[in-house]
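thought: fold this chain, then report.
action: predict
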Amino acid sequence: MTRTRTLSLPLLLTCVLSLACSSSSPATTPLSLPYKRHTRNVATPLIFDGRVIGIDDGDTITVLDSSNQNHRIRLQGIDAPEKSQAFGTRSKQELSQSVFDRVVTIEWSKRDRYGRIVGKVLLSGHDVCLDQVKAGMAWHYKYYQGEQSPEDGKLYSDAEEVARSAGIGLWVDANPVAPWDFRRRH
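observation:
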């Protein structure tokens, strides 16, 4: 049985407009592009700035852009403990102290299955996602490492190993449970 997918008129118009604007700079590309699951495009990220107005957990924020549109952002390359998991609250607090009510730059090229933008979050050019791993507040999410540049993949992996070896953050626990394992069990 073949499934056909129909596009709604607004979605179709967005696609047409995004193609028409393809010669524009990444910063002016529409944010409402349709998403593809597990896209592995790291060559041409879309970029926008916005103020962080919410912290869901240690790897998800809400950003308000210059046109007053909210965007849920899933931090690329990391997976933080769930709220009900050990270090879940601490991971959220660490991210909040770092970016809440600050203007960040989002570099992204896909949306996840929940429609969230999956992107690298930069504060004054500094990688916030990497900082969460360095602080022992998140794992490097190796399952999606192919969506990172090779340099970022190595940086995140090395940062996790350093935090783990030093017993920083969640690595103080003898056997921390990875969030993907925790979600599978609950």
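thought: worth noting. Residues 1-40 have pLDDT under 50 and may be disordered.
final: tokens above.
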